[in-house]
Request: fold
Amino acid sequence: MAKVSQIEDPQFWRAGAISIVLVMMVVLVMLTVDSLAAITVGGSHVPPFSVINQKIGYKFDSSRGIDIPTIGEKELLYQHEYTPVEAEALIDKGKLVIQSRACMDCHTFFGNGAYYGPDLTKAWLDPAWEGWKGITGAETRAEAMTRFLMDPVKYRTWGRAMPNLHLSREEAMAIVAYLKWIAAVDTNGFPQNFGQISVNQ
Reply:
């Protein structure tokens, strides 16, 4: 009877496959735990919901070679300091309004969605809103965004017109809170070159 070489032995390959699967499962668990620490609200990359009470900025971090959000002094949204519970409820409502109006059919959030309209991941930080304060008669960025969302046809801001979604003031305010919060998320430099590219509309 001929001796079967180790390479031809099914037990050898079975043991190897099981070993590789077990090792990779351990690696996957370790990566998942590490990622969850970064992407959980209040983690290293995702600020708590109450960050909407603070000034959100954007600057280049030379140590990482990317632009990152900055969280500064108190800057209240709608002249109200939201408790953590209120902030979470408002942001949840904003996310639900965005989902109910299928905003991702035209816009992108965190790289997901369509590119018919502007990417909204860092929309709160768009310097164009400073100019739109005067156009909408608003005193703050949040109010300019709210008025635009309530009547995007009247306050058209981009080459392609956004349809009027008939948002109530409360719904528009919730969307603005959501947009301010996601602007504070450290997306590792995404979208690349935000605010640095001049676009002819």
User: Anything to note?
Assistant: The longest helix spans residues 10-39.
